[in-house]
From TrEMBL, chain A:
This is Multiple sugar transport system substrate-binding protein. It holds the Pfam family SBP_bac_1. It comes from the Bacteria. It comes from Paenibacillus lactis. Coiled coil: none annotated. Keywords: Signal, Sugar transport, Transport. CDD domains: PBP2_TMBP_like (cd13585). Residues 1-21 form the signal peptide.
TrEMBL record, chain B:
The chain crosses the membrane at residues 12-31, 74-95, 107-129, 141-160, 181-203, 241-260. Signal peptide: none annotated. Its main location: membrane. Keywords: Cell membrane, Membrane, Sugar transport, Transmembrane, Transmembrane helix, Transport. It comes from the Bacteria. This is Multiple sugar transport system permease protein. Belongs to the binding-protein-dependent transport system permease family. Coiled coil: none annotated. It is a multi-pass membrane protein. PROSITE patterns: ABC_TM1 (PS50928).
Length: 453, 274
């Protein structure tokens, strides 16, 4: 009898756990990952769209406010959201795309728009953009245009590269601040005066030790805030206009690499090993350990948080006067597989984001990106008189000569291969000729693997 | 006597040094969590912050819905542990003690599934849970543990195989059925292994990132690791806050470990066999 009682109590516990478990999760079972189909209601046709975006905690709050506002203005559209931290967002998105469950509209890192476009996951937005958006009112609509002239996304916010400089370090060395007329050679000559070793000698002094640098003239890493603008302004680059062939092995790129490798060997520019002694690649300038950096707009936040006395100016010119700034336009993309109804509702969201001054202003206040709408970008909401950096206009001026990062379907893969080989040259493990030749072959292999299959 | 004292001193010294090696990363993390961003990035690093920024901890609680994330993690980890203990011990018992056709072949198949990386099965799992309308709920995160995972099966099978069969025979003579033998004899005797499985499962679920990211959509359903990661953005690190949040998230693991620790040192009681 006692035994049976034990069995019953065991079964009762199991039942309780099951009930508890289903209670914990039952509430959400109705609203799964994909948006539910539209339904007829009294006030007109209701459409529900799933909106995917990556965010930090602070930007998530702002995004939700803007979504509430959108729903008030569009009572027939219900927005269900899906957010994740940046690093994990794409893992989730790629899984959802593979399973046919992707959001109807999502925020894509600018460098990934072509990946989704060329794999058939993103919708061609050309007709809608031509119909509803006046190109002259926006920055960066062309950043999502492919070689055939089709548009695959609408920028949500823009990151463009400028030259950041630490005014205190310039003042301490008694050196003039960077000018807009600088070439990369001018930058290096000044950076040498601002590079200081452990003994307090600058890179111009006899007996300077490039192996024990305490303060670098320029910090520099990877593509966006590293080699891309140097190579482009020297007349080189990595991919051709269609972004399907490598053009790495050229005399112009060799010249650009000679400038970079010389700077690293002399200790003026941070090389990949120098960067490892910092908390992160981006921490060198905020920590006050570098006089200058190539930086996108988002770096303003860290520089301000670190309390630096700094400003920004245009990136230097190449030997022939060519100037190029790297640009990334994080963009809204619509799911190719969404129904017409949902795609149109998603387009309403994009239009709301791009055209409404109030939305653009509120997002600009977060300080993460240059606004897309010119009227807001050119107002004090963005230019913020009296706040650092004083010369915020440099970001807008740089958009005149900005170029996207040779974005294509295999961007991440080819950048990885290029970096591997470039690092060998930067660290002196390979000659520039060898590194460029190897990078050319490796990048082309990645491209062929996608475009020639 | 003298040698004994010397030996003991050396042992303590070695233990002291090794515990220091273990503690330094934690102490560094604690110090980093109490710095301003500027101090955090300073080179050369400053170990002890000038002013302890206890406000970083307050900021963590203010910034994110840490309480909600913690509750979600507790639900997922708690139900997972319950599921793993129950299902793995049942299946492990069957493989260890029951006789049925193709037992060895099935066991090899179970072990074989351990070789499949999680990312390979994530898309089929996603599609299954979508069909079951379970996306954006906590269910997919713990329900799998109720279906007996291979590592737990293996662990429990080995533990049950080590229990002398005399116990089983004695129980049978007393009239116990197989379930009663499992529940009344084997489970109590396998407590150390169950504690090990509980800790592994709890830690695995507590720290898991990939599956919550894939299955969860709404911020209010996030588990703690995702909540901590969402303190940083695409461009901004907030590293000192993330470290503070990570340290806070360690507390439940420590509690579980302290609770389960006593079972670790126990061993099977062989005294009943003569």
């Amino acid at each position: 009898m006692k035994k049976r009682k034990g069995l019953y109590s065991w079964l009762a516990a199991l039942l309780l756990v099951t009930v508890f478990a289903s209670g914990c999760s039952g509430g959400g079972q109705q609203d799964g990952g994909a948006a539910s189909p539209p339904k007829e209601e009294d006030g007109g046709k209701q459409v529900e769209i799933l909106l995917g975006y990556y965010s930090s905690d602070s930007s998530d709050t702002k995004m939700k406010e803007l979504i509430d506002r959108f729903e008030e203005q569009h009572p027939n559209i219900k927005v269900k959201t899906q957010s994740a931290p940046y690093g994990q967002f794409y893992q989730k998105l790629d899984t959802q795309i593979a399973a046919g469950q992707a959001p109807d509209v999502w925020l894509s890192d600018g460098v990934y728009v072509m990946k989704y476009a060329q794999r058939g996951a993103a919708k061609d937005l050309t007709d809608w953009i031509v119909r509803d958006l006046k190109a002259e009112e926006y920055y960066g609509l062309d950043f999502n245009k492919d070689a055939e002239g089709r548009y695959w996304g609408v920028p949500q916010g823009i990151q463009v590269g400028v030259l950041f400089y630490n005014k205190d370090l310039f003042d301490k060395a008694g050196v003039d601040y960077p000018s807009e007329d600088w070439t990369w050679e001018d930058l290096k000559a000044t950076a040498a005066k601002l590079t200081v070793d452990a003994a307090g000698k600058t890179a111009e002094d006899a007996g300077f030790d490039p192996a024990s640098v305490n303060q670098f003239g320029l910090t520099f890493f990877s593509i966006t805030e590293g080699w891309f603008s140097v190579m482009k302004s020297y007349g080189g680059g990595v991919l051709d206009e269609k972004a399907e062939n490598s053009i790495v092995n050229t005399p112009e790129n060799k010249q650009a690499f000679e400038w970079m490798v010389d700077g690293m060997q002399r200790g003026i520019i941070t090389d990949p090993v120098d960067l490892k002694s910092f908390q992160s690649n981006t921490a060198v300038f905020p920590s006050g350990s570098a006089a200058m950096r190539i930086g996108i707009y988002a770096r303003v936040q860290a520089a301000n948080e670190a309390g630096l006395n700094y400003d920004v100016t245009l990136l230097p010119k190449g030997p022939d006067g060519k100037r190029v700034s790297p640009v990334i336009a994080n963009s809204w993309v619509i799911n190719q597989k969404s129904s017409d109804e949902k795609a149109e509702a998603a387009w309403e969201w994009i239009k709301y984001w791009a055209t409404e001054d109030e939305v653009q202003k509120q997002w600009t206040e977060l300080g993460e990106a240059v606004p897309v709408k010119k009227s807001v970008a050119q107002s004090d909401v963005f230019l913020k008189a009296g706040e650092q950096p004083a010369n915020r206009k440099a970001f807008l001026d740089s958009l005149e000569f900005a170029q996207t990062l040779d974005n294509n379907a295999v961007w991440e893969e080819w950048v990885g291969k290029f970096n591997e080989n470039a690092e060998r040259a930067f660290l002196g493990d390979a000659t520039i000729d060898q590194a460029l030749s190897d990078a050319d072959a490796a990048v082309q292999a990645v491209l062929d693997d996608f475009y020639k299959k | 006597m003298k040698y004994k004292l010397l030996g003991r001193s050396i042992a303590y010294l070695l233990i002291g040094i090794s515990s220091l090696v273990m503690l330094v990363p934690f102490a560094t993390a604690l110090m980093n969590s109490l710095k301003t961003y500027r101090e955090y990035t300073t080179v050369p690093p400053r170990w002890i912050p000038e002013v302890f920024q206890w406000s970083n901890y307050a900021a963590v609680f203010k910034l994110g819905n840490i309480g909600g994330y913690t509750m979600n993690s507790v639900i997922v980890a708690g139900l997972s542990v319950a599921g793993a203990l129950l299902s793995c011990s049942m299946v492990g018992y069957a493989f260890a003690r029951l006789r049925f056709p193709l037992k060895s072949a099935l066991f090899v198949m179970v072990l074989g599934t351990m070789m499949i990386p999680a990312v390979v099965i994530i898309i089929p799992h996603f599609m299954i849970f979508n069909e079951l309308n379970m996306l954006d709920t906590l269910t997919p995160l713990w329900v799998i543990e109720w279906l007996a995972q291979p590592f737990g099966i293996f662990l429990m099978r080995q533990a049950f195989m080590n229990i002398p069969k005399e116990y089983e025979e004695a129980a049978k003579m007393e009239g116990c059925n197989p379930f009663q033998i499992y529940w009344r004899i084997f489970i109590p005797m396998a407590r150390p292994t169950l504690a090990t499985l509980a800790i592994f499962t709890f830690m695995g679920k507590w720290n898991e990132i990939l599956t919550p990211v894939i299955y969860l959509t709404s911020n209010e359903k996030y588990t703690l690791p995702i909540g901590i990661l969402s303190l940083s953005g695409q461009w901004t690190g907030n590293e000192q806050l993330m470290i503070a949040a990570a340290l806070v998230s360690l507390v439940p693991i420590l509690l579980v470990f302290l609770f389960a620790e006593k079972y670790f040192v126990q061993n099977h009681n062989m005294a009943g066999i003569k």
